[in-house]
């Protein structure tokens, strides 16, 4: 059995930098034509000039004969300026600005401390039609980690959509039924990315039989009822929902330690794993829309002209891949994946 799709894009990807980035970028380039590249490096990508330099490093790391277009983003800080937004839009290479609440996830310590202080910048973004990409979790330590997305909706997303109705926004890596319901009910230009780990697993996978650090990501895996709502949304054929892997490689030693970092590495088999989800939901006919059509439409970009083919063939990813001088353990290590990219 085979399926052929218009080549998909990844609308949320972490590539890291330097030798580590060079180790993993081929996995994404093999499957996806384009990717929205996250800016949370050290130091973060806060200017168009930095984004341009990072883009060149990515392109230089690609294997020969590979065609892959990195779509760059800026890291929103409390000091982001109007002029930088205009420069970013005019550059043609920056396709969004990423809002990390300070302390919400990996390398987010330079993130936003008070969204209201950035309203003048958001007005410029709305005028320039430069999308706001939102890591939608509060960081209040009094809020339960499993409720941080829902609280962010109530505290911040609802006011943001009311105050900036024409600003394109992406609700990144949604994880709850409340997020699905909010996106469906929202007027205006609001998209939502869904990761494959949140479709494949719920929090039992991370905690059953002991703590399994390679399933730990932020936003954290939720209970099964939320997983079910995400699967229904992804396979619904509704254009609000599209593919964003949030593939986030970390060295093995940084995951398997007393305080392991957050992030799942899925780039090695991303579209294959999405195919598993859609097949299990009897919705393979909806995969192309989710993976290949709705994202470009949201970002006002042309759909890809090339195709990829997946075949039904079981395989197992290796225990680890090279990651600079370290190793990265992929999601699904030691497990059987039932779809394979035809090379």
List keywords for this structure.
single chain, 343 residues, alpha/beta, 8-stranded parallel beta sheet, 3-stranded antiparallel beta sheet, 13 strands, globular
The overall average pLDDT, rounded, is 96
- Flag low-confidence runs: none
Structural class: alpha/beta
Order of strands, main sheet, comes to 2-3-4-5-6-7-8-9
Order of helices and strands: EEHEHEHEHEHEHEHHHEHHHEEEE
How many DSSP helices?
12
Span of the ends, CA to CA: 15 Å
As a percent range, the share of helical residues equals 25-40%
Number of strands: 13
Determine the strand fraction and express it as a percent band: 15-25%
Task: State Rg.
Answer: 19 Å
Q: Main β-sheet, in a few words? A: 8 strands, parallel
* Shape verdict: globular
Oligomer state equals single chain
């Amino acid at each position: 059995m085979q399926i052929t799709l218009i080549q998909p894009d990844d609308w949320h990807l972490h590539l890291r930098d330097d030798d580590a980035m060079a180790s993993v970028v081929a996995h994404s380039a093999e499957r996806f034509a384009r990717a929205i590249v996250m800016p949370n490096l050290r130091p973060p990508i806060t200017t168009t000039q930095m984004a341009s330099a990072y883009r060149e490093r990515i392109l230089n790391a690609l294997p020969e004969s590979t065609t892959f277009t990195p779509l760059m983003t800026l890291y929103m800080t409390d000091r982001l300026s109007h002029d930088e937004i205009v420069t970013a839009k005019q550059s043609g290479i920056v396709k969004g600005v990423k809002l990390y609440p300070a302390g919400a996830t990996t390398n987010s310590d330079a993130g936003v401390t008070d969204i209201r202080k950035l309203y003048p910048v958001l007005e410029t973004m709305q005028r320039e039609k430069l999308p706001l990409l939102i890591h939608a979790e509060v960081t209040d330590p009094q809020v339960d980690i499993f409720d941080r997305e829902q609280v962010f909706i109530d505290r911040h997303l609802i006011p943001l959509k009311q105050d900036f109705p024409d600003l394109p926004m992406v609700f990144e890596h949604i994880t709850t039924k409340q997020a699905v319901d909010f996106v469906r009910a929202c007027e205006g230009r609001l998209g939502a990315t869904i990761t494959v780990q949140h479709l494949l697993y719920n929090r039992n996978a991370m905690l059953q039989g002991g703590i399994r650090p390679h399933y730990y990501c932020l936003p954290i895996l939720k209970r099964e009822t939320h997983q079910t709502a995400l699967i229904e949304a992804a396979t619904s054929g509704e254009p609000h929902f599209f593919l964003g892997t949030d593939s986030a490689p970390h060295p093995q030693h940084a995951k398997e330690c007393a305080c392991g970092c957050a992030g799942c590495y899925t780039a090695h088999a991303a579209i294959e794993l999405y195919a598993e989800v859609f097949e299990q939901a009897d919705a393979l006919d909806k995969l192309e829309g989710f993976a290949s059509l709705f994202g470009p439409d949201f970002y006002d970009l042309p759909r890809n002209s090339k195709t990829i083919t997946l075949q039904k063939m079981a395989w197992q990813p290796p225990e680890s891949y090279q990651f600079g001088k370290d190793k990265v353990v992929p999601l699904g290590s030691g497990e059987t994946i039932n779809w394979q990219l035809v090379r």
